[in-house]
From TrEMBL, chain A:
Family indicated by similarity: Belongs to the sigma-70 factor family. ECF subfamily.
UniProt lineage: Bacteria, Bacillati, Actinomycetota, Actinomycetes, Streptosporangiales
Any one GO MF annotation of this record: sigma factor activity
Top-level taxon of origin: Bacteria
Chain ranges of the RNA polymerase sigma factor 70 region 4 type domain: 130-181
Key words of the record: DNA-binding, Sigma factor, Transcription, Transcription regulation
GO biological process terms on file: DNA-templated transcription initiation
Pfam families the UniProt entry points to: Sigma70_r2, Sigma70_r4_2
Organism: Actinomadura rayongensis
Protein name (Swiss-Prot/TrEMBL): RNA polymerase sigma factor SigM
Domain RNA polymerase sigma-70 region positions: 32-98
Originating gene: sigM
Region (Disordered): 187-207
UniProtKB/TrEMBL annotation, chain B:
Official protein name in the record: Zinc-finger domain-containing protein
Membrane-traversing stretches: 97-119
Keyword terms, alphabetized: Membrane, Transcription, Transcription regulation, Transmembrane, Transmembrane helix
InterPro entries per UniProt: Anti_sigma_zinc_sf
Length: 207, 247
């Protein structure tokens, strides 16, 4: 009964959880969310930058997935499908934000609240804020590709499956995104001596 | 030898293998001769490293609860596209499976063969006997359930009952905890009231009997053995439409 089936759900593969949910099993979907919410959150907060918006997007995504479970096609991994739903929920949030009137400026409190804090390159929080600000300058497609590949560690093929574009498109979006980010993140390299690494991580450097 | 330095786009494309062979060869040639561009190339690799190392803000502690309650509210709403009434009910109300189990235990409390069958079939009774008190016959979140007053639930086990094996199949069903049990609709309530004469059924299973749609109703008999009726889809208290009866 109750306790028994919850224990058993731990062992159930993602696809079967989704199928059981579609058949009306009440705890199956909650288990799926419990299993993957940390990574879904990471995708949302890195794609949107703002934790509050990311929280809304993650909730949107969970509800969308809950409703769409019956339409899941078994040929993709459930995580791929879930991540796609999260990315789409983020895109929806951004679209909604862009039609919303901007916050009126001019009062000091508002100005202080949105003023960038002085970046401290040795501070992890500072790096995080800088990275977030730099990512925010990218077009959505490039940002989503870099979040998945460079930040989340997904392969190009996995990212291609999540975003439903060819792998070459992912590579190109990542390349363009990195090139754009470089000037913005340059100061975070200063902990190492650039002269020492010239030939080591250059990639295409012939000997 | 350095007519122009390589731009970041070109270097990033090279790293991803996106340049055609001729272009890649000329870029490699330039890199071999130009320390500054090698440096730029290393800077690009560092972008990925910085991105990978950036800490993720923690999942807000209240967000988990918020999402759980949004999902719970969603599961109580009518899910679109689901037509099966029992599926809808089961999804809306996860308490019903528990109530069905509790109903089985109430029957068990009276002793007799059905009670023992419930016990014997369920992992030596460990899970059934220990944890669930026999009280929660009604759903604490849906007071309207109380108006049914029946305390028993309908299952759709999918069992193809046969005349020759009816008793064994019923015993098997009784030993199982129904995953999705539904509150009976008015017609089923009326039918069961007529057949069981006011006694609480231990099993009401909408299934098939010898290939025909039928509802199997089992009641604990006076001698402890289950009374089993097989009724047709037209069953009501006035006309039970009994296809078979054993016990």
């Amino acid at each position: 009964m109750g306790a028994m089936s919850v224990t058993a759900l731990d062992e159930v593969p993602d696809k079967e959880l989704l199928a059981r949910h579609a058949e009306g099993e009440p705890h199956a979907f909650a288990e799926l969310v419990r299993r993957h919410r940390d990574r879904m959150w990471a995708v949302a907060v890195r794609t949107l930058g703002d934790p509050e918006e990311a929280a809304d997007a993650l909730q949107d995504a969970c509800l969308s997935a809950f409703r769409a479970a019956g339409r899941f096609r078994g040929d993709a991994a459930v995580t791929t499908w879930l991540h796609r739903i999260v990315v789409n929920a983020c895109l929806d949030r951004i679209r909604r934000r862009s039609v919303r009137p901007a916050t009126p400026m001019g009062d000091d409190a508002t100005f202080d609240a949105v003023a960038p804090k002085l970046p401290d390159p040795t501070d992890a929080h500072g790096v995080s804020l800088d990275v977030q600000e730099a990512l925010a300058t990218l077009p959505f497609e490039q940002r989503a590709a870099l979040v998945l590949v460079d930040m989340m560690g997904y392969s190009v093929d996995d990212a291609a499956a999540i975003l439903e574009v060819p792998p070459g498109t992912i590579k190109s979006r990542c390349a363009r995104g990195r090139a754009r980010l470089l000037p913005l993140l340059h100061h975070h390299r200063n902990r190492r001596d650039p002269r020492n690494v010239g030939g080591v991580e250059g990639g295409g450097v012939p000997t | 030898m350095n007519p122009a330095h390589l731009d970041y786009d070109t270097l990033a494309d090279l790293a991803e293998g996106l340049l055609d062979d001729d272009r890649a060869a000329s870029v490699d040639e330039h890199l071999a001769a130009c320390a500054e561009c090698r440096d730029r190339s290393a800077e690009l690799a560092d972008v990925s490293r910085i991105l990978a190392a950036a800490p993720v803000p923690a999942l807000p502690p209240d967000l988990t609860a918020r999402i759980d309650s949004a999902l719970a509210a969603e599961s109580r709403a009518e899910p679109p596209g689901v037509t099966d009434l029992n599926r809808r009910r089961a999804r809306r109300n996860p308490w019903r499976a528990l109530s069905a189990a509790a109903a089985a235990i109430v029957v068990l409390g009276g002793g007799g063969l059905v009670g023992r069958a419930v016990l014997d079939g369920a992992d030596d009774g460990k899970h059934l006997t220990a944890s669930v008190p026999p009280q929660p016959m009604t759903d604490p979140r849906h007071p309207r359930v109380q108006s049914f007053g029946a305390g028993w639930r309908v299952v759709h086990s999918g069992t193809a009952y046969r005349a020759a094996t009816l008793d064994r199949q019923v015993t098997g069903q009784l030993s199982r905890v129904a995953a999705a049990a539904a509150i009976p609709d008015a017609r089923t309530s009326d039918c069961v009231a007529g057949v069981a004469q006011g006694r609480a059924p231990a099993l009401v299973d909408v299934a098939t009997y010898d290939g025909r749609p039928a509802t199997i109703i089992a009641v604990r008999g006076a001698d402890g053995r289950p009374d089993v009726w097989v009724v047709g889809p037209g069953c009501s208290s006035r006309n039970p439409d009994v296809l078979a009866h054993s016990g």
